[in-house]
Amino acid sequence: MSDDGKQATMPASMNGAHPDAAMRSLPDNLAVKCPKCRELLLGKDWERNLKVCPKCGHHAQLTAQERIDLLIDEESDFEQIDRDLVSNDPLKFVSLSGTDRSKLDGLADSTGLKESVVVGSGIIDGLPVMLVIMDFRFLGGSMGAVVGEKITHAIEIATYERIPLLIATASGGARMQEGVIALMQMAKTSAALARMAEAGVPYIVLLTDPTTGGVTASFAMLGDVTIAEPGALVAFTGPRVIEQSMHIKLPKDVGYAEYLLAHGMIDGIVHRRALKATIARLLHLYDDAEKAMN
Ligand SMILES: [Zn+2]
User: Fold this and answer.
1) What is the distance in A from the centroid of ligand 1 to the CA of 40?
2) Same structural domain, 116 and 181
């Protein structure tokens, strides 16, 4: 298990700008208020229910470590790669809230992560898989040069070793603090995925709330199989921004997983409780097909 596990217990609040950040909890996570329906829940029930609200079904964000623990076999180890790659703040970005460097250092302390993505290999239901897990707490899961490099590296290893790739997305898109360098990661990851597709290695995407911007416009939409968690916002631009800038009213569920499924953009919506079994089933189907061909 990685060092990140030390920070894996749920923080009292999230650092991202997403509504889940407003989740208020009492000391020691005794009680949690559902960020969607405001139902007050016992912290231990919330954890036991995998952070899915029993009343309204809201799937709250998971940390990368929680997602890994949810998916890989209990007795197997997650072997993390590129753990120490860190952004070198290429534009020396300064905002009203301080330098990018100081923000990155602060996030490393509060999340135990060095970047917004954790990559490595693990075992799901006895089968090896390369995992790329994004964590929205770290600068809104944004993609800069390091995130692009880690994802590309994972894709290349999966291609070379012929093991399926699973990417769980959670991102606000390209990291504006890295300007055009961040945008280039869209092409870099997509090109690596094209080589993987040519080699016939399977790629499963799990879209979690929220997945937007340059991540949606690149590797998040290139899966052989694409599944989403219920209620996940998946869009290039969020519906609220479209409405404000275009002065139009969109149908209620535009931009959410259910709308994408109804319009043929994704293959399925899977409750968090059924996620591991569903992914395991897909991996076994691919494994059986690979064996049948050899
Ligand atoms: Zn709720």
Assistant:
1) 9
2) yes
